[in-house]
């Protein structure tokens, strides 16, 4: 049985391009819209790719910027210059 990796982000203008990138880059992601927030769940891992977010924003984006719109997460965090991910893999 695999666990769900999860990110919950504010549902605002700053988070929308990130949410769109997550949905595009993570097949099978489940999206739960709540008042003021969006919860994204995926079996095993969720990845936020810098290039995908930059494409939607039209500017450079540092994966550290996700912390400005991040409410909660479930999984082990791994981040570098190109991506931010949560997973249950070791």
From TrEMBL:
<comment type="similarity">
    <text>Belongs to the TmoD/XamoD family.</text>
</comment>
<protein>
    <submittedName>
        <fullName>MmoB/DmpM family protein</fullName>
    </submittedName>
</protein>
<dbReference type="InterPro" id="IPR003454">
    <property type="entry name" value="MOase_MmoB_DmpM"/>
</dbReference>
<dbReference type="Pfam" id="PF02406">
    <property type="entry name" value="MmoB_DmpM"/>
</dbReference>
<dbReference type="InterPro" id="IPR036889">
    <property type="entry name" value="mOase_MmoB_DmpM_sf"/>
</dbReference>
């Amino acid at each position: 049985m695999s666990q769900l990796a999860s990110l919950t982000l504010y549902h605002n203008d700053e988070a929308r391009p990130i949410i769109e990138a997550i949905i595009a880059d993570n097949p099978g992601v489940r999206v739960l819209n709540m008042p003021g927030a969006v919860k994204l769940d995926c079996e095993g891992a969720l990845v936020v790719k810098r290039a995908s977010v930059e494409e939607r924003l039209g500017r450079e984006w540092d994966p550290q910027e996700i912390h400005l719109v991040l409410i909660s997460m479930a999984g082990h965090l791994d981040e570098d210059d190109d991506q931010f991910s949560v997973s249950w893999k070791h």
